[in-house]
Amino acid sequence: MLDPKTAGCRGKLFGMVAFIFASGMLAGAFTMSLVERYYWLRPKPSVLSEAGKAMAVQHFCRELALNESQTKAIENILDEFIMQQADLLARYRSTRLSGHDRILEILNEDQRRRFKKILGELQNQRKD
Questions:
Q1: Does the predicted model carry a pTM greater than 0.85?
Q2: How far apart are CA 107 and CA 111, in angstroms?
Q3: Same domain, residue pair 37 and 83
């Protein structure tokens, strides 16, 4: 026969293990949501950095067995690409801001305030 004390201990032990398991699952889910929000979903820089360029050149050299003139040509192409991409990004931002300014010119004060609020909400949605 079972001792009444032992049966109660089993129930408490099972409850404790279930509580620890559920707590671990919740902590893991919470941690993953934080990681996704603040690490994985950060906007990536759209312009290739110098470090990225150096890594790309090294990778191409290793994988394609490039000679020195080919390596130099690829470096020049990537430099040109970086400059073009930075220029396009700057023109995009300038055009977008110009459009916002033109819209703000035709709105009354209440509409301007609401328009700015809408833009802020859209920016927050893009970040999330």
A1: no
A2: 6
A3: no
